Each structure stands twice: as C-alpha cells, then as structure tokens.
Amino acid sequence: MKKKLLVSLLAVAILLVGCSKNEPAKEENTANTGEPVAEASENKIVIGVSPTPHGEIIENLLPKFEEAGLEVEIVNYDDYVQPNLQLDAGDLDANYFQHGPYLETFNKENNLDLVSIGSVHIEPMGVYSKDANSIDEIAEGSDVIIPNDAANGGRALLLLEKEGLIKLKDSTNILSTEQDIVENPKNITIVPMDAQNIPNVYEDAGAAVINSNFAIGAGLNPTKDTIALEAGDSPYTNVVAVRAEDKDLEKFKTFMEIVQSEETEKFIEEKYEGAVIAAFDN
Fold first, then answer.
1. Residues 25, 78 contacting (CB under 8 angstroms)
2. In this structure, are residues 22 and 196 in contact, taking their beta carbons and an 8 Å threshold?
3. How many CB atoms lie within 10 A of CB 169?
4. Residue 22 placed within a domain
5. Same domain, yes or no, for 135 and 176?
6. Which residues lie across from 278 on neighbouring strands?
7. Is residue 77 part of a domain?
8. How far apart are CA 69 and CA 258, in angstroms?
9. Of 7, 14, 24, 274, whose CB is crowded by the most CB atoms within 10 A?
10. For 256, phi and psi rounded to 5 degrees?
11. Are 133 and 162 in contact (CB under 8 A)?
C-alpha cells in the first residue's frame, strides 16, 4: 500500500514539474502573473475563484450582476495560494475560494491585510476510501492523506478525531498537526499533501480527507461517496475576500446583496444536493 501511494505521489510530482502548484488554472479567463487582469473601475469586479462550486455559483449570477450595473469577470484558479497573493497585488478585486480560518491563517503567515465581506456557503469536508466502507473498516497501519496547509490540515484532523480514528492533544485547536495526535489506536500514518492533488491519489491510500470543491471537481459526490462527512454546522464557511481598504466600496455592497440572495440559495440547493450548503440568511 505504501509503495503504491509513493508511486502515485511521485507521479503527481512529475506532472507538476514546469507547472507550479501556485499557478492559476490555464483557462481562457485565467490571470497571468505579469500585468493586472483589468484596470480598476467603479463598477467592475475581477474575482478569483475555484472553478467548483465557487465559479459556478458566481457564473449563475452574471445576469443579475449585469442588471445591477456591475461588470463581473471570473478568473479560475486551481490552488489555494495565488488567489490571495494576486488579490493583495491588485491583479484581482476580490476572491472567493477559501473559508474564514484559512484566510485568517494566510494573512498571518504572509503579512497580508485581506478581509471577508461576507459568507456564502459551507463545503462539508469528507473522508473517502476505496477499500473501507466506514471509519471502522480502515485497516491498521493505513496511510491517511490530509491537506498540507495549516487550516485545512487541522480541520481534517479534527474530523478524524470526531470519527474516533485519532485523539488530539487539544480538540479546540483548529491548527492541530500530526504532532498533536496523542492516541492513534490503528497506528495510521498521516500523509500531508497539496489539497488539489488528493483526489488523484486517494484510492492508493487507506483513506483521505478531501475538500468538497476538489472532490466535486474530480467527480466525487460528498453526500454519497464519503465514509464520514462534516456536519452542516461547520464553522468553515467560504467567504468573499477583498483588500481591507476596499471593503466599504459600494460595488462590493451591491455584489454581496446579489450573492447572498434567495436565488443563490436555491441554486446551491438544487445543483449540489447537500454537498454544498448556503451559509447566509436572506
């Protein structure tokens, strides 16, 4: 099992040679790291998103934005780093791909001043396994893959603890790491990995904890394919972020009124069927 996982990890590493994980997806509307995507405008918003579900949610609202006099341009990214760096650099006006704890951690680690202007949805994180049909069936000594960033790694460990697979030193610490595991009855090995790559190799491990946006993008259904799923009251709500000095701009107030609307809630309910949950009151 470990040899098979190692081969899979090496294959992913080879695929990434010459294409940094921190580069946005190569799509028609994807930002380059050179010139800004667009010039600033009172009514234009260039927003960086993960394609699923964030980009799909925003794309569904494009007619509403246009009716409100906003010009919204969507830029897709396949990682969790560049959307914040390019927002800080001014290449983006806003981004929508991350949950609040990740934004807070990223700000501290990179000395940025990005702020949330509102919550949109929750993506319950799930545990996936090719061989086990429940947490109890995960074999002793298995590799269990989790995201390697601090916020999502800690989130994954808290989920594994809640399901009884491990015990942590402090169950309230959202930034727990594998060094904080104090009980490990099945002697599992935690394997941290870039979150976007986990769906490609999870079948070679005993289990893996996958963010729902990457799971959905890989054709997995969080409500049907998981052996454990976060509860809907998770504090990890996905937010729209902007530079702190821009948070009170009128265009963002209008933008969020449309995003946090009944139409968005209905779209999320119908398209994702519980795999994504609206996290606002309208």
1. yes
2. no
3. 11
4. no
5. yes
6. 121
7. yes
8. 12
9. 24
10. -70, -30
11. no
Q: 29 Cβ partners below 8 Å, 6+ apart?
A: 73, 74, 75, 76
Residue 230 near residue 127 (C-beta atoms within 8 A): no
Query: Is 193 found in the same domain as 248?
Result: no
Measured CA to CA, the distance from residue 255 to residue 191 in angstroms comes to: 39
User: What is the CATH number for 199?
Assistant: 3.40.190.10
Domain coverage including residue 215: 2-15+125-229
Half-sphere exposure of 55 (CA within 13 A, CB side): 20
Which residue type is seen at 182? V
Q: Classify 241 as helix, strand or coil.
A: strand
Residue type present at position 141: G
One-letter amino acid of 27? E
Check residue 99 and report its DSSP letter: E
Instruction: State the total domains in the chain.
Output: 2
Structure tokens at 178: 């594998």
* Encoded tokens for 33: 């790291």
Q: Are 277 and 268 in contact (CB under 8 A)?
A: yes
- Indicate whether 196 belongs to any domain: yes
The tokens for 30 are 């994807």
The C-alpha atoms of residue 223 and residue 201 are separated, in whole angstroms, by 20
User: What digits encode the pLDDT tens for the residues 240-254?
Assistant: 999 999 999 999 999
Give pLDDT tens digits for 167-211: 999 999 999 999 999 999 999 999 999 999 999 999 999 999 999
Other CB atoms within 10 A of residue 245 CB: 9
